[in-house]
Amino acid sequence: MADTKIYQASTTAPVNIAVVKYWGKRDPKLNLPTNSSVSVTLSQSDLRTHTTAACSSSFPQSDTLLLNSENQDTSGARTQACFRELRFLRSSIEAADPFLPKLSALPLKIVSENNFPTAAGLASSAAGFAALVRAIANLYELPASPTELSRIARQGSGSACRSLFGGYVAWQMGTKTDGSDSLAVEVAPASHWPTMRALILVVSAEKKGVSSTSGMQITVATSELFQRRAEVVVPKHMAEMEEAIRNKDFEKFGQVTMKESNSFHAVCLDTFPPIFYLNDVSKAAIRVVEDINKKAGKTIAAYTFDAGPNAVIYYEEENIAVVAGVVKGALGHLDGWESRDISAQEAGDLDSRAVSVLKDGVSRVILTQVGEGPVKTEESLIGADGEPIK
């Protein structure tokens, strides 16, 4: 009698926001980067993807993926690469133990949900592919470490490899043509520097105009600044950032974070035709951070922008009043502040024009902090009947 049992496993995975940016591919097919990068993993209480992976002979024969209740195409090379690699690892285990169920031969059903806007510059693909890979790895009971799985997640979305870890994470670009040494490693766990906080100004929840993949291809092909960034600027910033994290030196961390963001967006501007991920609201956020630091007489807040207009402002818990509190004094009308007990502070030292632009252009705030990597959960998105839970 055929085995019609529904096997399943669920996980949640975090967003990570890079402080040394990944931009450019030396091999688009394998998602091999032209430079290394470093990120901070953010708390899943505020930003996470929840994914259930299931397999059964009773499922339709093709693999399916449901994201935020919408069917997704699973035939793409990136998704198929992840499925293929994970199935290969499972089949190797099955070959060594004939009593194990042959899960690698069964169709997959993946159901995934984000608790934040998708494709709006908030690293949704990173959390999404990290959750997909980790959930299937749990389903297949693979003994692979996060670093080993990062090689697979990288093929789905480059920055996803960093979301397989909590805390502070480096993606080592590697040099091998097969990508076997392009992996994520832990720089420091969240517990090493637990006081790191992040305030996200959500400028637009709309899907961005130029995707990261497309933007990278155009940059590599046309930017004259790109090569210097990859070969000189980023290696210098990588060394400085990893040292700052080890020493919990926020001033150095903040300065490198802002220089990195500026360098990345300068390269985008140098692309032909130019790519504009930042807008006037983004620039106003930069001005506000500069005003906060000027008032403090040192770097206590640091802005960074990924491939989108949303501002991520890092700061330490001890400066919550003079960073988040001051921003709340200017933008206290927005949703999101209720998630934390933060008292609004006088915002008179902030540029009035910048504050006006932020009031008109920011839709909400997200308050979060450094957090842990993927977490296995018993909360399933697929019912016992194999159908998505509504």
UniProtKB/TrEMBL annotation:
<dbReference type="InterPro" id="IPR053859">
    <property type="entry name" value="MVD-like_N"/>
</dbReference>
<dbReference type="Pfam" id="PF18376">
    <property type="entry name" value="MDD_C"/>
</dbReference>
<keyword id="KW-0443">Lipid metabolism</keyword>
<dbReference type="InterPro" id="IPR029765">
    <property type="entry name" value="Mev_diP_decarb"/>
</dbReference>
<dbReference type="GO" id="GO:0019287">
    <property type="term" value="P:isopentenyl diphosphate biosynthetic process, mevalonate pathway"/>
</dbReference>
<keyword id="KW-0067">ATP-binding</keyword>
<keyword id="KW-0756">Sterol biosynthesis</keyword>
<comment type="pathway">
    <text>Isoprenoid biosynthesis; isopentenyl diphosphate biosynthesis via mevalonate pathway; isopentenyl diphosphate from (R)-mevalonate: step 3/3.</text>
</comment>
<comment type="similarity">
    <text>Belongs to the diphosphomevalonate decarboxylase family.</text>
</comment>
<keyword id="KW-0456">Lyase</keyword>
<feature type="domain" description="Mvd1 C-terminal">
    <location>
        <begin position="198"/>
        <end position="375"/>
    </location>
</feature>
<feature type="domain" description="Diphosphomevalonate decarboxylase-like N-terminal">
    <location>
        <begin position="13"/>
        <end position="184"/>
    </location>
</feature>
<dbReference type="InterPro" id="IPR041431">
    <property type="entry name" value="Mvd1_C"/>
</dbReference>
<dbReference type="InterPro" id="IPR036554">
    <property type="entry name" value="GHMP_kinase_C_sf"/>
</dbReference>
<protein>
    <recommendedName>
        <fullName>Diphosphomevalonate decarboxylase</fullName>
        <ecNumber>4.1.1.33</ecNumber>
    </recommendedName>
</protein>
<dbReference type="InterPro" id="IPR020568">
    <property type="entry name" value="Ribosomal_Su5_D2-typ_SF"/>
</dbReference>
<dbReference type="InterPro" id="IPR005935">
    <property type="entry name" value="Mev_decarb"/>
</dbReference>
<keyword id="KW-0753">Steroid metabolism</keyword>
<keyword id="KW-1207">Sterol metabolism</keyword>
<dbReference type="GO" id="GO:0005524">
    <property type="term" value="F:ATP binding"/>
</dbReference>
<keyword id="KW-0547">Nucleotide-binding</keyword>
<keyword id="KW-0752">Steroid biosynthesis</keyword>
<keyword id="KW-0444">Lipid biosynthesis</keyword>
<dbReference type="Pfam" id="PF22700">
    <property type="entry name" value="MVD-like_N"/>
</dbReference>
<dbReference type="GO" id="GO:0005829">
    <property type="term" value="C:cytosol"/>
</dbReference>
<dbReference type="GO" id="GO:0016301">
    <property type="term" value="F:kinase activity"/>
</dbReference>
<dbReference type="GO" id="GO:0016126">
    <property type="term" value="P:sterol biosynthetic process"/>
</dbReference>
<dbReference type="GO" id="GO:0004163">
    <property type="term" value="F:diphosphomevalonate decarboxylase activity"/>
</dbReference>
<keyword id="KW-0808">Transferase</keyword>
<keyword id="KW-0418">Kinase</keyword>
<dbReference type="InterPro" id="IPR014721">
    <property type="entry name" value="Ribsml_uS5_D2-typ_fold_subgr"/>
</dbReference>
